[in-house]
Amino acid sequence: MKSISFLAAIFAITLFVACNADEPASVEQPLAIDEFFNSEPRSVANPVHAVLTAFERDYPNAIDVNWELSNTIYHATFNVSGALASGTMNAPSAAGTHTNEAYYNTNGAQVQSERDINPADLPQAVKDALSRDYPDYRIDDAEIITRGAETFYEVELEKANQEIELCINPDGTYRTEDPARGNADGLQAAKTHFAANYPNARDAEWKVFNAFIRVEFEQVENNRETDYEIIYTSAGEFQKIKTEISVQQLPQAVQTAINQYIAGKAGANAEIEIDDVWEVTAANGTKSYAALVEVESGNSEMEYYLELNADGTITKETAHEDN
Questions:
Q1: Please, what's the b/e burial string for 137-149 (b: 16 or more CB within 10 A of its CB; e: otherwise)?
Q2: In angstroms, what CA-CA distances link 250 with 210, 244, 272, 317?
Q3: Domains, in order of start, for the chain
Q4: Which one-letter DSSP state was computed for residue 179?
Q5: For 146-183, what is each residue's pLDDT tens digit?
Q6: Contact 75/69 with Cβ under 8 angstroms?
Q7: Could you give phi then psi for residue 257, rounded to 5 degrees?
Q8: Contact 3, 218 (CB under 8 A)
């Protein structure tokens, strides 16, 4: 499974204003998207059938698709070449390739979508507000976000070594900050630690969750690209780093435990493929491991996610029907 294509890393002092505005209790979609941000997501090869069907309908030209699951929300990160199908929640502003994200619940309803746009395509009211309130900043990046019937924009403003990220409505009014997702000091602390300890990182993508901060990135080591993921607390304290490794790099006790577990789940003629394997190093240096395994038997395809201690003890197991 290939890793998600990420935006370039920005090592800057950051003021972060989260985009998940407080909404009236009667609006369900923001509550649905919060399901994703309430816990750490895990990679999945494919979503359930209802989600995959909806996604292929909404984005028939999607390429480089990667999926993850958190609670009941599936998250796809992908590129789209050319125009999208009519009736989708967003569409590219011009022909070409566009970076997209889409969130679906298990019933196949899309609860949020995000897409990079050219800053020149922002509504005039948005550009006027930014020029008025941030005259010394330039717009470094812009996204259009659709949530139910609501559309707004996320913009990154840059000046020297300062960066401001905020959300703004089409009429130029700013969206209310959500304290749970707007820890500016925590994000700044995390980025400071990251810049100091991973100077050779590239293609870093930051995402702020309700209780933690995640950055995914690549490094080239021994002429090979390696994928990493770091989890920081919401206060910006280093918590753990996940490193993508090969099956052969797993401790023998972990390999044996995975093989025994899958043997107990798979039939005699099942096809077994270990998609992803990670080494997880905690802040105190303790190592653990995680693996994503696909098992295909007849018309049935199952996906198993395992977390294990170095001695092979399974600490977490999740089964997911891959259809």
A1: bebbbbbbbbbbe
A2: 32, 11, 17, 17
A3: 19-176 (3.10.450.360), 184-244 (3.10.450.630), 247-321 (3.10.450.360)
A4: G
A5: 988 889 998 888 887 677 778 899 999 988 644 334 45
A6: yes
A7: -65, -40
A8: yes
